[in-house]
């Protein structure tokens, strides 16, 4: 398990995720968003809006220029590793956007918005699985979160609210609405990509045979278990609640172990997407 975690922190793996994810995003921007005139969210969207309304430069160059002050600020306030990885992502997106010279032909605007959202969301999710970020607004969001405890989502919401308000004032309403749909699909795709390999099941087992169940869980499933001290509300009898974190594959085996030992056990399952520490994921350090 430690080998796996060390690999996830390695330079090679992180650069692979960042370069691949950033290139996928660039394909979405250049091959779908620009031909349809979509306004993506974030700093790239701001660059696209300026390019559409003024005709100066292109969205990729504007994105590169907007990132300069962001990275100067990040250099002073964030760890060098996080900033370095984020710089690679930003540079890859900008350069790939300028190099890519093809269009993914989709006639229907709604279909194009959905495809763009899935593609860019998957790419952004890959980058966010690394120890860096997509650059741009991510850098500011991290700084505000660390310094002033302002949620990352709030920073994005405020910026995108202003961006799309300006878009409504200068672009066709149908086009901006399609862009909003695309932005929503991007956020859903990012969340799905981040949780795809991180989803866990938090299981609480209340039983008189909790010790026997715990022994079998550790022996057969090779996962840890924790006893939580509880008390029955009706009879006021002390109970030991067994807590186990597992995955979808082992869940059915865990259920079988519990009810084989005690047919009257209470088996509670909750979905969880962030299990950090011990033999699970290591905390992402900025």
Mean pLDDT: 84
Main sheet characteristics: 4 strands, antiparallel
- Measured by DSSP, the beta-strand proportion falls in 5-15%
- End-to-end separation in angstroms reads 23 Å
Question: Secondary-structure element sequence?
Answer: HHHHHHHHHEHEEHE
**Residue share in helix:** 55-70%
Can you count the helices?
Answer: 11
Give, in spatial order, the strands making up the sheet with the most strands: 2-3-1-4
Oligomer, anyone?
single chain
- Bulk shape: elongated
Please mark out the parts with pLDDT under 50 across 5 or more consecutive residues, or reply none.
Answer: none
Count of the separate structural domains? 2
Which structural class fits the helix and strand makeup?
alpha+beta
Count every beta strand, where a strand is a DSSP E run of 2 or more residues: 4
- Cα gyration radius (Å): 24 Å
Write up this protein:
The protein folds into 2 domains: 2-195, no CATH class; 200-272, 2-Layer Sandwich (Alpha-Beta Plaits), CATH 3.30.70. It is built from 11 helices and 4 strands, in the order αααααααααβαββαβ. It has helices at 2-8, 11-36, 42-54, 59-77, 80-99, 109-128, 137-148, 152-170, 173-195, 210-221, 248-261, and strands at 200-206, 226-231, 238-246, 266-272. It has a 4-stranded antiparallel beta sheet with strand order 2-3-1-4. Helix 2 (11-36) packs across helix 5. It is elongated, with a radius of gyration of 24 Å.
């Amino acid at each position: 398990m430690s080998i796996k975690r060390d690999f996830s922190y390695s330079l090679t793996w992180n650069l692979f995720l960042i370069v691949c994810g950033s290139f996928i995003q660039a394909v979405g921007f250049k091959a779908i968003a620009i031909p349809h005139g979509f306004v993506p969210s974030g700093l790239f969207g701001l660059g696209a809006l300026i390019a559409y309304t003024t005709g100066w430069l292109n969205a990729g160059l504007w994105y590169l220029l907007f990132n300069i002050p962001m990275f100067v600020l990040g250099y002073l306030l964030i760890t060098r590793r996080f900033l370095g990885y984020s710089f690679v992502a930003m540079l890859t997106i900008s350069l790939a956007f300028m190099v890519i010279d093809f269009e993914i032909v989709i006639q229907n605007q709604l279909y194009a918005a959905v495809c763009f959202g899935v593609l860019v969301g998957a790419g952004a999710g890959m980058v966010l699985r690394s120890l860096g970020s997509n650059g741009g607004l991510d850098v500011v969001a991290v700084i505000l979160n660390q310094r002033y405890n302002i949620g990352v989502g709030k920073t994005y919401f405020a910026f995108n609210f202003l961006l799309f308000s300006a878009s409504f004032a200068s672009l066709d309403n149908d086009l901006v609405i399609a862009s909003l749909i695309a932005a929503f699909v991007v956020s859903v795709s990012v969340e799905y990509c981040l949780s795809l390999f991180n989803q866990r099941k938090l299981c609480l087992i209340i039983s008189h045979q909790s010790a026997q169940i715990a022994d079998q869980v550790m022996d057969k499933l090779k996962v840890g278990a924790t006893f939580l001290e509880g008390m029955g509300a009706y009879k006021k009898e002390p109970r030991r609640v067994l807590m186990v974190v597992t995955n979808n594959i082992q869940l059915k085996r865990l259920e079988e172990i519990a009810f084989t030992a005690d047919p009257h056990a209470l088996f509670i399952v909750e979905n969880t997407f962030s299990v950090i520490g011990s033999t699970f994921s290591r905390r992402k350090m900025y």
